[in-house]
Design brief:
two-stranded antiparallel sheet; RDD; 4 domains; cell membrane; 5% strand; single chain; transmembrane helix; 348 residues; mainly alpha
């Protein structure tokens, strides 16, 4: 048995097959305990294969984004065809257990979803206009009151300090009340204690004092005379990159569950092709040219979140990476190539 804290001379006798100096073939568990070239090896069958062009990949992910938004609507008009295609694919590949699983999911959703798209009801959503200078103090108070050890007196003390900052701000009285209510409901107090605390805290809130800066009007420039900075211009623009990225984040927030399902199961069970990649004639393959497992596909879809978190830089690196690997490809050790055909490989 190979010891993880000992150094061994190993030899690769075949792909993913290693033997040590005694001739013992290492098991998969033993291989994971030492450094091997496995993670950095590209299968010979992939050498020379044409990579998918960035434009193709961009169009494919755009199509997939539209499909995920459609799935997020909860309409059977969109859900059933996509599940039906996956079911047909599994039957064709004689993956009966997987086909049964997809069929059960499809039947379950058929009895729980409607054919008409579901729109979120915004009538009960609380809209809170919180100044940026209060966001950090509010977050600190929320963490403290949400602590299991913070009892009634502790919550009261934290709210009393934060209430002074609220009263000093120009927030509307309604927004101030909503803020305190959110903080009280975030605590671990029982319903009776929360009700009592709301009654005592909310009545001590004051109306905003408007025009508190009148004495400085002579030395402060008018708002119309101040040139907005670049960030403010981007925020005010209806066609800015900032709002576009924000929209993507919002869509992925709403449809995260569907996105996780879509990218995981379609990549693993549909030969590395989502619907967008299928239409664009490209596919995802592992560096070792082995079929992608569900776990590897799940890891890869997690890379999309990393790409968004890096301000799209994780996606844009396909423009300069030697093998056009985006961040999700780096995470899962994959490539995106032009779909291989039986005779020849070419990219139109």
């Amino acid at each position: 048995m190979t010891s993880p804290d000992a150094s061994h001379d190993i030899t690769q006798v075949a792909p993913d097959t290693f033997v040590d100096e005694t001739g013992h073939q290492l098991s998969k568990k033993e291989i994971r305990q030492i450094v091997t070239p496995h993670a950095f090896k590209v299968a010979d069958s992939l050498i020379g294969q044409p990579l998918a062009k960035p434009m193709r990949r961009g169009i494919a992910i755009g199509i997939d984004g539209l499909l995920i938004s459609a799935l997020s609507s909860g309409s059977l008009v969109f859900v059933l065809p996509l599940l039906g295609y996956l079911l047909w694919n599994r039957v064709r590949q004689q993956r009966i257990q997987q086909a049964v699983l997809v069929g059960i999911v499809a039947l379950t959703l058929a009895f729980t979803l409607d054919f008409s798209p579901q729109k979120p009801d915004s009538g009960d959503v609380k809209k809170l206009n919180l100044p940026t200078d209060l966001a950090l103090p509010m977050a600190g108070v929320a963490l403290k009151v949400a602590n299991d050890n913070c009892d009634y007196d502790c919550v009261s003390e934290q709210l009393a300090e934060f209430r002074q900052q609220l009263n000093a701000s120009e927030m509307s009285l309604e927004d101030k009340k909503l803020t305190l209510e959110e903080l009280i409901e975030a605590s671990h107090l029982n319903e009776s204690q929360q009700k009592q605390l709301k009654a005592s805290q909310l009545q001590q809130l004051t109306q905003p004092v408007m025009g508190t800066n009148q004495n400085h009007s002579k030395i402060q420039p008018k708002a119309d005379d101040v040139e907005p900075n670049l960030w403010q211009k981007l925020e005010q623009s209806n066609h800015s990159l900032l709002q576009w990225v924000t929209g993507i984040l919002a869509d992925f927030g709403v449809g995260f569950g569907w996105a996780m399902f879509y990218f995981t199961f379609y990549i693993s069970w549909n030969h590395g092709q989502t619907i967008g990649k299928l239409l664009m004639g490209i596919q995802v393959v592992q560096l070792d040219d082995q079929p992608l497992s569900l776990w590897n596909s799940f890891s890869r879809q997690g890379g999309y979140g990393a790409g968004l978190a890096t301000g799209l830089i994780g996606f844009l690196q396909i423009l300069w990476d030697p093998n056009r690997q985006a961040i999700q490809d780096k995470v899962a050790s994959t490539l995106v190539i032009v779909k291989r055909k039986a005779a020849g490989h070419s990219e139109s």
